[in-house]
Design a protein that fits this description.
The protein is mainly alpha-helical. It has helices at residues 2-25, 73-80, 89-93, 107-110, 130-134, 138-143, 148-170, 173-196, and strands at residues 31-37, 43-49, 98-100, 126-128. It has one domain (2-196). Helix content is 50%, strand content 10%. The longest helix has 24 residues, at 2-25.
Length: 197
C-alpha cells in the first residue's frame, strides 16, 4: 500500500495526461470499473483506464481480442503498453489488490474453477503475475478464434491457473520483485517490437 501511494504520487502527472487522453478521445468515463473476484472469493471493482467504447461489456463478450472494434484509438495505444493497468494502483491502495498476485477474473470464470484452483483466492489478486507475462499476447491468440470465449475457457484459462498455483508455492517478497522486473521487461520489449513493425 505504501509502495502504491508513492508510485501514484510520482506518476500523477503522467496519469493525469492519460486520463485527459481517454476523456477527449471518446465519450464516457475515464475509468472502467468492472466487478472481479478477489481474496476470499469476494467481489470488488477493479480500476482500469477505459480503453473501449462506453458500455462495451453490454455489446460484446467478456474477453477482448486484439482487433476488437470496441477498442478506442487511444485505447489501442494504452492496451499495447499495458498503461490501463496503472490505475489499479488505486486498488492496491484500498487493499483489494496487491502489486503481484494471481490476476482477478470475472465471476463467470471463477465459477468454473476446480477446488484446487480456488486456492488462488486465498491471496490478494495482483496487477501482474507470472501468468500475465506468459499470456501477455492472449488477445492475439483470441483474434484467430471463431469462438474467443470458448478458446479462453478451454485453452487459456487452465494453463493460466496452473501458473497461478505455482506462484502460490513460490510466493515471497523477493520473487514478487523479480516478477515486477520481468513484467516491465516483457511490456517494453513487446512495445518495441510492435513499434518496429
Amino acid at each position: 500500500m505504501i509502495a502504491s501511494f508513492v508510485m501514484l504520487v510520482i506518476l500523477s502527472p503522467f496519469l493525469l495526461l492519460l486520463a485527459l487522453a481517454v476523456k477527449f478521445d471518446s465519450k464516457g468515463p475515464v475509468f472502467y470499473r468492472q466487478v472481479r473476484v478477489g481474496r476470499y472469493n469476494q467481489d470488488f471493482k477493479i480500476f482500469k483506464f477505459r480503453t473501449m467504447v462506453q458500455n462495451a461489456d453490454q455489446i460484446g463478450p467478456a474477453v477482448t481480442t486484439g482487433e476488437d472494434p470496441r477498442i478506442t484509438r487511444v485505447g489501442r495505444f494504452i492496451r499495447r503498453l499495458r498503461l490501463d493497468e496503472f490505475s489499479q494502483l488505486l486498488n492496491v491502495l484500498n487493499g483489494t489488490m496487491s502489486l503481484v498476485g494471481p490476476r482477478p477474473e470475472v465471476r463467470k470464470y471463477v465459477d468454473l474453477y476446480t477446488p484446487e484452483q480456488m486456492a488462488t483466492l486465498l491471496v490478494r489478486p495482483g496487477i501482474t503475475a507470472p501468468s500475465s507475462i506468459a499470456f501477455k499476447d492472449e488477445d492475439k491468440l483470441l483474434d484467430a478464434a471463431d469462438d474467443p470465449e470458448r478458446v479462453y475457457v478451454e485453452q487459456i484459462l487452465p494453463p493460466k491457473m496452473e501458473l497461478n498455483l505455482e506462484y502460490l508455492e513460490h510466493i515471497s517478497p523477493l520473487y514478487d520483485l523479480s516478477v515486477i522486473f520481468q513484467t516491465a521487461a516483457a511490456v517494453f520489449l513487446s512495445g518495441g517490437k510492435e513499434n518496429a513493425q
